[in-house]
């Protein structure tokens, strides 16, 4: 009996620590998603009417997943503290949903990467063409924001770059279409790493929750 209670207490503490970590991880995912949306190089592409919808949709999903993680981690702490089979079972189901969502988002990001790159490149090309037709006013500031955010200038042809509003600190102008592809691939790679980390943490949480739930049931049957 004493060994059983000791084992349950150990699993309970481990699950509580996991939930605290899961809650903090959820907050970190929210912060990461918001940074990519509002602070990263691609943020400038959402300041006008046109924006790479698929890319930003993925970021919104990431922020939403972080919010769910934070909520699940909080209620998981409550379930572990109260030794409630119902709460722990619900916690397990939520983790399972989060795990399935992460796998789905990963597949979606892999499949939609090419489309997201094409959308962003099309936005830049439209701004580039508008500037060539009328290089004044809002069009001038729009394409300049893109150049500053991506640290590039033009589409690779030196003759085409003549007269373009390029950042002053660029010595060798880079192809903006290539930079857009590099930035999106890098950011999606970071999102993928975060997703794998969350999925790994989720698996451990499901294991701990099932062990604790079974331990609580066995202890109640013994009593």
Low-pLDDT parts are none
* Major β-sheet profile: none
- As a percent range, the share of strand residues is under 5%
Q: What is the assembly state of the chains in this entry?
A: single chain
Task: Report the helical percentage.
Answer: over 70%
Number of strands: 0
| Morphology | rod-shaped
Structural class: mainly alpha
Give the SSE string.
HHHHHH
Distance between the termini: 9 Å
Radius of gyration: 24 Å
Give the overall pLDDT as a whole number: 75
Which terms would index this structure?
single chain, 223 residues, mainly alpha, 6 helices
Provide structural commentary:
The protein is mostly helical. The protein is 81% helix and 0% strand. Helix 1 runs antiparallel to helix 6 (176-222), helix 2 (53-82) packs antiparallel against helix 3 (85-133) and helix 3 packs across helix 4 (137-150).
Quick summary:
The protein is mainly alpha-helical and 223 residues long.
How would the blueprint of this fold be written?
Elements: H1 2-38, H2 53-82, H3 85-133, H4 137-150, H5 158-161, H6 176-222
């Amino acid at each position: 009996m004493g060994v059983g209670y000791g084992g349950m207490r150990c699993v309970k503490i481990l699950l509580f620590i996991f939930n605290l970590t899961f809650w903090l991880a959820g907050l970190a995912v929210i912060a990461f998603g918001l940074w990519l949306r509002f602070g990263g190089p691609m943020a400038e592409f959402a300041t006008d009417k046109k924006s790479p919808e698929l890319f930003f949709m993925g970021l919104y999903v990431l922020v939403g997943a972080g919010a769910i993680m934070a909520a699940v981690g909080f209620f998981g702490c409550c379930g572990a503290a109260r030794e409630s089979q119902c709460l722990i079972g619900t916690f397990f189901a939520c983790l399972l949903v989060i795990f399935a969502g992460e796998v789905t988002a990963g597949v979606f990001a892999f499949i939609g990467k090419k489309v997201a790159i094409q959308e962003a490149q099309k936005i830049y090309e439209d701004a580039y063409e508008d500037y060539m037709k009328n290089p004044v006013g809002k069009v001038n500031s729009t394409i300049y924001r893109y150049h500053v955010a991506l640290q590039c200038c033009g589409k690779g042809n030196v003759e085409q770059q003549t007269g373009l509003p390029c950042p002053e600190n660029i010595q060798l102008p880079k192809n903006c279409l290539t930079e857009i592809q590099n930035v999106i691939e890098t950011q999606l790679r970071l999102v993928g790493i975060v997703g794998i980390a969350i999925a790994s943490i989720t698996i451990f949480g499901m294991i701990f929750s099932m062990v604790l739930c079974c331990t609580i049931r066995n202890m109640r049957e013994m009593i």
